From TrEMBL:
Keyword terms of this UniProt record: ATP-binding, Nucleotide-binding, Transport
A Pfam match: ABC_tran
Transmembrane domains' residue ranges: none
Top-level taxonomic group: Bacteria
InterPro entries: AAA+_ATPase, ABC_transporter-like_ATP-bd, ABC_transporter-like_CS, P-loop_NTPase
Keyword Heme appears in the UniProt entry: no
Domain ABC transporter: 4-236
Alphabetized Gene3D superfamilies for the sequence: P-loop containing nucleotide triphosphate hydrolases
Protein name: ABC transporter ATP-binding protein
Cross-referenced PROSITE patterns: ABC_TRANSPORTER_1 (PS00211), ABC_TRANSPORTER_2 (PS50893)
SUPFAM superfamilies in the record: P-loop containing nucleoside triphosphate hydrolases
Protein species of origin: Anaeromyxobacter oryzae
Family recorded in the similarity comment: Belongs to the ABC transporter superfamily.
Keyword Translocase among UniProt keywords: no
Length: 304
């Protein structure tokens, strides 16, 4: 079953008297299976935030249709099963984290006893400030409160717009661990982020939005794959002639390359180990998301 389904999604903004037409979305089709972590990336102005708002029923599309968890995103029963953290998080400065969570729980119609609210704040690392007014919070602390608010009601679908923005490196590690736990428990994650390294660490599927169109979409390993090549690092005193005889080619950066599928790779590694080599690192050769995004942008400009 699908957590998110968009068909022919389009959104056109017009200025006064119909002038200054801007097509933020141009016929986007997307299907996100339940229980997966999906990352939406793209340059500024690509339409990512418009797409997220359209998914949630905050913005109505000019054309096309959206379904969340098999239902209408404007249906309160569906919205209660979705947790949302917006990009521009606005929290009342006079409220405490406990009061904010209680307000979200009332809107969702989800019971939230104080012990459960404190547990959510503990999960995001802000329980020590549960009774403090958020007006004195740093951006990172506000992000943690916003994430706790998105988790109210144990949603089946989490839609998070820049969830780690403003967090320090330790905070980002903690959020990744939290999201991994939610994913393991069966939730679906939909992340919109400009932090490509974070997206790579969290998401198994990626979509690239360029000028309102979904330029590429698929499993992360498929988008970043280059060829059937592997990078292997052996312990420093590995016998170079034996490695070459086993089928490895020196890469010039201390690593050796092997071209082939997993089965011949395993056979080559067995020959290398038999010659006394010790494998200390093995990874598939591939591109990172920055390269994939740059390629999608170039292809979009050439097609325009």
């Amino acid at each position: 079953m699908l957590a998110i389904e968009a068909r022919g999604l389009a959104k056109r903004y017009t200025g006064p008297l119909g002038r200054k037409v801007h097509d933020a979305l141009r016929g986007v089709d997307l299907a996100v299976p339940r229980g997966t972590a999906f990352g939406l990336i793209g340059p500024n102005g690509a339409g990512k935030t418009t797409f997220v708002k359209t998914l949630l029923g905050v913005v109505r599309p000019t054309a096309g249709a959206v379904r969340l968890l098999g239902g209408d995103p404007e249906d309160p029963r569906i919205r209660a099963r979705v947790g949302y953290m917006p990009e521009r998080l606005r929290l009342s400065p006079a409220w405490t984290p406990l009061e904010i969570l209680a307000s979200v729980a009332r809107l969702k119609g989800a019971p939230l006893p104080r012990p459960r609210a404190l547990a959510l704040l503990e999960e995001v690392g802000i329980a020590h400030a549960a009774a403090r007014r958020v007006g004195g919070f740093s951006k990172g602390m506000r992000q943690r409160v916003g994430l706790a608010a998105a988790l109210v009601g144990d949603p089946e679908l989490l839609v998070l717009d820049e969830p780690t923005d403003g967090l320090d490196p330790i905070g980002r590690v903690e959020v990744r661990a939290l999201l991994a736990r939610r994913l393991a428990a069966g939730a679906t994650l939909f992340l919109n982020s400009h932090l490509l390294a974070e997206t790579e660490r969290i998401c198994g599927r990626i979509g690239i939005l360029v000028e309102g169109r979904l330029a590429r979409e698929g499993p992360l390993e498929a988008l970043t794959a280059t060829s059937a090549e592997w990078l292997v690092r052996f312990e420093g005193d590995a016998p170079a002639p034996a490695l070459a005889e086993a089928g490895f080619t020196a890469g010039g950066d201390g690593r050796w390359r092997f071209a082939g599928e997993p089965e011949p790779l395993n056979a080559a590694l067995d020959r290398a180990r038999a010659a006394g080599a010790l494998v200390v690192e093995l990874q598939a050769d591939g591109k990172d998301l920055e390269v994939v995004l740059a390629e999608a942008l170039r292809a979009g400009r050439e097609a325009a």
